[in-house]
Amino acid sequence: MTIKVVLADDQELIRAGFRAIIETCDDISVVGEAANGVQAVQLAPQADVVLMDIRMPEMDGLTATREICARHEHVRVLILTTFEMDEYVFQALRAGASGFLGKNMGPAMLLEGIRMVAGGEALLSPKATKGLISRFLAQPAVVDGAVPEKLSLLTDRELEIVTFVANGLSNDDIAGRLFLSPATVKTHLNRAMVKLGARDRAQVVVIAYQSGLVR
């Protein structure tokens, strides 16, 4: 199936560059372009993935991300930014974004990022270290009182796997550590995501830090 993408960036030249890269692929297509957050929200229902700039006029990318993720469960938001260490990036993750990339990444990374996010994976730039994620997501101001209650619904194995996911391990890495098959790890993780109300791996990471499970 073709992955449908909306490009949201206030610079037409950047949108044109992304479109040119995407049009080299048979499995990804651009279905719309937005010059601000308002347009991004309007176009989001057509998309599987929205490539979202943070700083845009009328409505910023953070607000647009929150609106899109609240309204459209099937839509994934991938933040594109020049400021990979910006606090807004982490606020975007809390708002429901599935990950982010720096605008200086190569074409191959852009395409792979779209595919990963469309497939439900979390995508965090190598510069988004665990310590920085912890710094922003573990702030008391963002702790949800319902989060610890949700964690109590998990089995010991599911809790263990959520902890590994929050530390950045892939399903294959987790499988190797726990002497399980990757398919079994995926099954446990999917069950944990349902119990936690997490839309993808990025949200699992957010919940793990918000609850204090991982610091």
Automatic annotation (TrEMBL):
Give start and end of each HTH luxR-type domain.
147-212
Gene Ontology MF annotations = DNA binding
Signal peptide stretch: none
* Keywords per UniProt: DNA-binding, Phosphoprotein, Transcription, Transcription regulation
Q: Which residues carry this modification: 4-aspartylphosphate?
A: 53
InterPro entries the UniProt entry points to:
CheY-like_superfamily, NreC/VraR/RcsB-like_REC, Sig_transdc_resp-reg_C-effctor, Sig_transdc_resp-reg_receiver, Tscrpt_reg_LuxR_C, WalR-like
Which GO BP annotation is one of this protein's?
regulation of DNA-templated transcription
Q: Does the keyword Membrane apply?
A: no
Q: Which residues form the Response regulatory domain?
A: 4-118
Q: Which SUPFAM superfamilies match?
A: C-terminal effector domain of the bipartite response regulators, CheY-like
Cite the PANTHER family for this sequence. TRANSCRIPTIONAL REGULATORY PROTEIN NARL-RELATED (PTHR43214:SF24), TWO-COMPONENT RESPONSE REGULATOR (PTHR43214)
> What is the name of the protein in this document?
DNA-binding response regulator
**Originating organism:** Kibdelosporangium aridum
